[in-house]
Write a structure and sequence with these properties.
With 175 residues, the protein is of the alpha+beta class. It is built from 4 helices and 5 strands; from the N terminus they run ααββαβββα. It has a single domain, classed as Double Stranded RNA Binding Domain, CATH 3.30.160.20. α1 crosses α2 and α3 packs across α4. The longest helix has 18 residues. The protein is flat.
Length: 175
């Protein structure tokens, strides 16, 4: 399969219009460059704001885990395997490192990604879930490599102490 959004290409104007309407409803008036990049993402990857495939944070688009899984499904990903990197992890302190491998198809290249999480780089809202976050980050990184996704995923974003909790559905504002 060539273009990731190939199946949806006949419906791109409708998908884009729906994405733009949904984005404006969620985040208010958006700059033209933000809407233009949304159109590109809808055309290239068939991502949907309505389905939660994309989030707008501080004026930048981020793909979500579900968005990446949707791309993998449309591209007929043949499998994803994860494992704990016990050498790099420090389980007593809550630092987890995972390795993920994405298999694009039989006999085809495999793509590896690593993800880490510890109490210092995850939101206070999800403390205690560092292991699952590390695994998700690893899978997201491997999927982004496998399918050439230039966007960072929401789940890969770290957390800086003192950072305000972000509601992705607050109106857009320039950072």
């Amino acid at each position: 399969m060539g273009h990731i959004g190939e199946r949806a290409s006949k419906k791109v104007p409708d998908v884009f219009r729906l994405n733009a309407e949904c984005a404006r409803t969620l985040w208010g008036d958006l700059p033209k460059v933000t809407i233009s990049s949304l159109k590109e993402l809808a055309e290239k990857y068939a991502l949907s704001v309505l389905l939660g495939d994309l989030q707008l944070i501080n004026g930048r688009w981020y793909v979500t885990h579900s968005g990446l899984l949707g791309i993998a499904k449309r591209c007929r990903c043949s499998g994803i395997a994860t494992s704990i990197d016990r050498f790099a992890s420090d389980i007593p302190s809550g630092r987890w490192v995972f390795k993920a491998v994405v298999y694009k198809g039989r006999g085809r290249k495999r793509f590896v990604g690593y993800g880490d999480a510890d109490p210092s780089n995850v939101s206070p809202l999800v403390h205690g879930a560092e292991m699952r976050i590390a695994e998700t980050r690893a899978v997201n990184r491997a999927l982004r490599k496998a399918y050439g996704i230039g966007l960072c995923s929401v789940e890969e974003l770290g957390w800086a102490s003192g950072q305000e909790l972000c509601d992705p559905f607050l109106p857009y504002r320039n950072a």
